[in-house]
Amino acid sequence: MGKIRAPYYRIVVADSHTKRDGRVIEEIGKYHPTEEPSFIEVDSARAQYWLGVGAQPTEQVAAILKLTGDWGIFQGDKNAVSTVRTKESKVDFVADEKKKPVLKPKAAAPAPKVEAPAKASVDTPVEAPEADIAPAVEGLNDADAAKVEAVSDAAEVKADDATEADAEAASADKA
After folding, report:
1. Distance of CA 22 to the CA centre of its chain
2. What residue ranges define each of the domains in the chain, with the CATH number in brackets?
């Protein structure tokens, strides 16, 4: 099995009178030597059965059975264990939080504009302009965000001046 420079082997049980690549009785394992660490998989119960009924492993298969501990169990060693190294599971990818992401986040949809009443009374609180601007500021870079903040501060000062003027006009009407 496999191809040039990429060998893959099957561990099989075959009659000794058949051809090397001929008919097999049973496949009991796999061996992929080019992986790091080598991939070795043996059906231990079937290997023990075939060794018990008299199957003779080749030198290469005997070496693999010694690694998996099956040969030691067959010989009667109760403490035989597998010494096959297994591949470590892949570590999940975690993006570096310190670096700037490549994709820019989508800006939030603009909030629907609410029409202001024709004339605001003195008792009615004025909505802060920052509440409308805040979602738009989040998607901007630092320079643009600073410009938006400066504009919103200027608008806030004008709004404060307008409310003071309305309050003075209301107090002049009452007097």
Report:
1. 45
2. 2-75 (3.30.1320.10), 104-175 (no CATH)
